[in-house]
Amino acid sequence: MSGSDSDDENIVQYGTPLEPYEEDEVPSKRKFQQPPDQYAVDAHGRRRFHGAFTGGFSAGFGNTVGTPEGWTPATFKSSRSEKAQTASQRPEDFMDEEDRSEFGIAPKQMQTVREFSGQKRSRPNRYHEGPIPGEPVLEQLLRPVHESAAVRMLQAMGWREGQGTEFREAKQDSEESSESEFEYETLFAPEDYEPYILQRKNDKFGLGYSGLSRHSVLGNLVGEYGSSDNRSHLVMKDKGKKVSIRGQAFGVGAFEADDEDIYATEDMSHYDFALGAPSKQVERKSVKRDKNVLEGFMKSTKPLQPVPSYPPPTLPRDYKPKPAGSRRTRFEPTDKPQRDQGLGRHDLTADARGALLGEVPIPKASTENIPQPGTRTPTQNAIEKLFGKNVNFVSEKTESEDFISIKDTGGELKTFRPFVSNPSKQARYERYLESKTTDSDSAKDKLSKWEREREMLEFEQAAKLYRPLTGVIGDRFTHASQPDDALNPLCAVAKSSINYGLASEEMIEAAKKGAFGVMTRKKVDWQPEPLVCKRFNVPELGGSRQEQNKEVKPKVSYSIFSYMESSVHDKESFTKEQSKFSGSKSLSEEVRVQTPKNQDKTPAAASVNKRMTVAELFLKESENTEEKGQEVTETIEKFDRMDLYKAIFLSDSEDETKETDIFNEMPKNVERNDSPPRGIFANINFDEINSWKRSQSDKNSSDPKQNTNNTDKTLSSTDKNNIDAKQNTTDTANKVDRNATPEELNVYGPKIPDNFQLNIEFNTNEIFKPKFRRKEDRKDSSSSDSWVDAKEVKSKKHKKKNKKHKSKQKKSKHKKKDK
Amino acid sequence: MTEVTQITALTTIQCKQQAVRSVRFNIDGTYCLTCGADKKIKLWNPHKDLLLKTYGGHANEVLDVAGSSDSSQIVSCSTDKSVILWDVTTGQPLRRYRAHASSVTCIKFNEESTMAVSGSIDNTVAFWDVVSRRQEPVQVLKDAKDSITSIQVTNHEVLTTSVDCHTRLYDLRVGKMVSDYMGAIITHGSLTHDGQCYVLSCSDGTVKLIDKDSGELLNTFTGHETQDFMLENCVNEKDNQVISGSASGEVFYWDLISSSVTNKLVHKMHKPVVSICHHPTDSMLLSACEDEIKLWGNVIAKE
């Protein structure tokens, strides 16, 4: 033993000694492995395989199968608010992420979508989420047939499934041709045959070998085409009682040695029964072999058909490749010249357009175009003296460009022809445009009176609408006071800091001299809002005014009345408005509430201010006017509004009675709509049109003097028309309310100061005369027994009389009040 | 060895706001607000050169800013036509008023910061109720015929200056508006601390001292360059000096009585000093030029 001990001392041992074999033990091929090494683990170091025989899958939530945590079952929760969703379970639900990784059993890969993979497109399987989950059985049974275009074409040509595609031929079989069934010549399709397509071998495997398919366990193709079988490669066969599962995943494990074939049966055929070399094979019949031909093969007689090559089509010479993905942006310049849009009026300059319209070019300095000194009226001089030089908002000059009648330009201008579909009507319309009457020729057209009347309205409206530039929109615009350069940001704008903010000449002079103080100072009443006072801790001024300052929201009113009031389209008011906003000229509210010493001159201005633009209307409504001085103009506006209101709602019946008195013969239109006009008629003063009509018939019955007046009315002489108008009004005024005295006139409504009355008359005759538009003149001459359109520029006296007249007609309390 | 007090730049802050449109002290002068072309408002401690907060939310250049009397709110106005009321601590906009039709150029709180008064290029002055949730202006003054350039609010008066060469003083107690024609565009107007005079920066290269009651010209201060800039002016805390920025990059100090230039502070040569603001109680001045603000103050120098 001692010797052996010394032996042990001399030997140096490395590693772990193998276990000594037992005497009769057959050495195992297996290598020695430590127990922990024998477990296959996944990327996270967790055991991959579980269970004795069913292993191979890591399973459970977080690989928990086999652990105390076990399986995490799905929870079912359903409440009234949140109904449980039927969640269909997919195989993926039972997989861990490594199963879906590249080397897992169901690898998830990026691959082209079927649509683009070149294969036939199949609908994505959308299974019903109904009570039976999974693919519907019917869908499994019935597969939709997809036919290629070629198949469809063939079918259209008479081909049926199972037939050959060659030419049909008569049956040649003798025994069948004798039968009566095929007496007539019948052509039979050739037999179909499965073409034997030689596929080139392009891999280096042995013949007949198919390598591991890249099917995943779940059977979805992983990038392998051509295989019609997209089932799982796990094949389950039921042979009697035995169930054998074959498939890729069930091979030999990575860490396991090949199992012995436990089912192999020992068979005597496995053994050799003779000693020595195996007996010689029977000599094969030696075939004459060609060169380069493998054994068992023979050289084909026909050469292999060359793969036909189809050259790509030649491209057009000027073809530029445009990738499908690249989208053109809208902002790219187009090669094509742009199609002409609209009327091409945008490439015209303002002057060219003006020339087309036949305008008289405005002299450059439009702000300074003071009328000839000879024609200046003393009032104007006075106003100018008062406000400096900038009172020319009523310059006579504008008269010519204010109204471009159809007559002037209509011939050359391509105006819109609204009644083209009805040529006779269009002709009548054109006649109407020329003469503004339909009386003479309309008899020929065999129209009833009522029809004619209606047509008149239509024409009137159309004429208003389709008037070039002076249409409904046209007169909201004014000529540019500055050249177009003013809009160019690169051009320096002329500084005009001298006369902003309505400084009078005296003020400017004083400021120049440096004499600030009394001369440059203006004091104006100003009413702070109660809430402002409250917030500033200042006692409110004049508690009585509180009701007036009630908050009126600056709402856009769509009421017909506000529209009538606001739709002041004449140019004069517009220029006035504009200049007011720009602050370069005209009057402001400060002027209106100036010191009493100027008051005898302000009414002139106030009467001008009567007209309101939309903008001003909004302003007015929002600020809920406070100044007393404005009330003078306010009343007139109210009158207009009141007028209109009565015209539509109240006075209809009374008018009717009066009408029937005078014109008994007039047939009453039963079909007439009595409701207030809306839509395109909203802006038409029907009563005025009617009255105009009436005066036409009046012409026949009344005195010859009026008759001559009316015939004269087509003349464009403003003076004459004015006289006519005055005569008409006075006539009717006398006729209807003969006992109405001027004193009584003033009784109605808020009193207008006496000096106003004078001024208004004066102004009407002197200043505003040239501003009447021809259209209005016509109306003037005819509006004898009617009230006044709210849009018209009228002298207040005019208005008053009409007003009076109106109230006289009524048997209402107004009249009683008057008496 | 004499002790001489000298005004020098105490701190210089690069605001990084592209161009500072205005700089304003808060009510007690411990903080200041700048607003600039980068659409932001910044709250600073100028004495410590500290940026405290940035307020973003305007859609365009912020033209003017004002702090409330309790320093809890900021109101600002911008070329995006809106007026925004900010909460100082959270930095969130509390209200956004959008009634002006054009850029809002100037804004002020009233004495109790219950109302903001803003002036705009649309020629209007709007009173905004900051206390209630009302979105419309309480009152709109439409007297001006051109852009409003500046607003001053006292306890019962609102002074506006306008490009239409007029100053307008709205007296809430009397219910009168007094307008004075100045003959030149007024780029800024301020009131002296005694409330008796206006100081008006005119575009004709003068700063005018106008008596409030009579509208008479008391004094004219010249020497600075105006060019086309909206220069601001202010009066020092003792009401004895008139201060104005200049297009030449300097800040001018004039003696109120003698109208002689007493001091010239060079902010940055040839760059306009567009906004200045005087400390309410100390002799400190903030001036803004390009993206830089400077705090000027007295330093005792020994000679």
TrEMBL record, chain A:
Domain of life, per lineage: Eukaryota
Biased composition range(s): Pro residues: 305-315
Compositionally biased intervals (Basic and acidic residues): 329-345, 774-793
Coiled-coil portions: 433-460
Keyword terms, alphabetized: Coiled coil
Pfam families linked: DUF1604, HTH_TGH
UniProt GO cellular component terms: nucleus
Keyword Coiled coil: yes
Claim: Coiled coil is one of the keywords in the record: yes
GO molecular function ontology, one term from the record: RNA binding
Biased composition (Acidic residues): 1-10
Example of a GO biological process term: mRNA processing
Region named Disordered: 1-36, 57-135, 162-183, 296-345, 574-607, 656-754, 768-819
Biased composition (Polar residues): 703-733
Family annotation (InterPro entries): DUF1604, G_patch_dom
Compositionally biased region (Basic residues): 794-819
Ranges of residues in domain G-patch: 146-212
Similarity comment text for this entry: Belongs to the GPATCH1 family.
Name the record gives this protein: G-patch domain-containing protein
Organism field: Leptosia nina
UniProtKB/TrEMBL annotation, chain B:
PROSITE patterns attached to this UniProt entry: WD_REPEATS_1, WD_REPEATS_2, WD_REPEATS_REGION
A Gene Ontology biological process term: mRNA splicing, via spliceosome
InterPro entries listed in its UniProt record: WD40/YVTN_repeat-like_dom_sf (IPR015943), WD40_PAC1 (IPR020472), WD40_repeat_CS (IPR019775), WD40_repeat_dom_sf (IPR036322), WD40_rpt (IPR001680), WD_repeat_MORG1 (IPR051980)
Gene3D superfamilies (UniProt xref): YVTN repeat-like/Quinoprotein amine dehydrogenase
Location within or outside the cell: Cytoplasm
Pfam family, one: WD40
Keywords of the record: Cytoplasm, Repeat, WD repeat
CDD domains: WD40
Predominant subcellular localization, coarse grouping: cytoplasm
One Gene Ontology term, aspect cellular component: cytoplasm
SMART domains for this protein: WD40
WD repeat boundaries on the chain: 13-45, 55-96, 97-138
Annotated family: Belongs to the WD repeat MORG1 family.
Protein known as: WD repeat domain-containing protein 83
Source organism: Leptosia nina
